[in-house]
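Class prep. Write one:
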Amino acid sequence: QVQLVESGGGLVQAGGSLRLSCAASRSTFSINDMGWYRQAPGKQRELVASITRGGRTNYADAVKDRFTISRDNAKNTVYLQMNSLKPEDTASYYCNAEFVFALGARDYWGQGTQVTVSS
């Protein structure tokens, strides 16, 4: 059973920082792209940042120059360093990873971790 376990969310004041982590429960499978998404109340889930296995990154315009995504392939773990946080960053953050199996690839999601930024 593959699971993505997230940690690192919490309450922070505007201008502060948080670091999210997401680890795969089983490391025997290869993982292609990994990413972070977020969903605020009443809004659709949106991509925050993604990273390929080779380290190529992609960011939403709203978080460029403030957030940094990275990964440790040996640990099947992806991180999101969030700096200069704003109240509009408040949302549930979800980890996503594409696992590669013998019969094909499949996306998995974490359970979500809450990030709340107070003004």
Notes: The mean pLDDT is 95.
